[in-house]
Automatic annotation (TrEMBL):
Residues 17-31 have a biased composition (Basic and acidic residues). Coiled coil: none annotated. This is YbhB/YbcL family Raf kinase inhibitor-like protein. InterPro entries: PEBP (IPR008914), PEBP-like_sf (IPR036610), YbhB_YbcL/LppC-like (IPR005247). Belongs to the UPF0098 family.
Amino acid sequence: MGLNIKDLTVTTADIGPDERLGDRHAKDRDNAPPALRVSGVPAGTAELAVVCHDPDAPLPRGFTHWTLYGIPADVTEIGPDADSRFRPGPNDFGTTGYGGPKPPAGHGPHRYYFWVYALDRAVDGTPSRAEFLDDYRDAILEQNRVVGVYER
């Protein structure tokens, strides 16, 4: 199945394109995930998944801030209560669920990619970001994202 990137749309009122994430989303503040709005979910979607990743972290594979699974295909908003409504997976803080931005002080701006994946099969368990991308790459019908920036 070919990758289609024209229909799935992800938006949020919490951040504009490449704009700064508000402090309330930061790990050492309210640690509230932005509310993601999803539309254009393709036919045949069994489940949605979310991954928030910081590719600017000074680590070989960046830093995973959020993995979230078990989101029904008809969900149109993934809000601040998402960790209690769906199935949160591991982040690179060593916990599960959303862990907001907390870049090293003085390291400059970091980009936070909030990816939404439409999958043709359900995710089993709570894989890490790397496990999810390896094990479900063939299940991705579409993917899209919003990006925010944060600096300390």
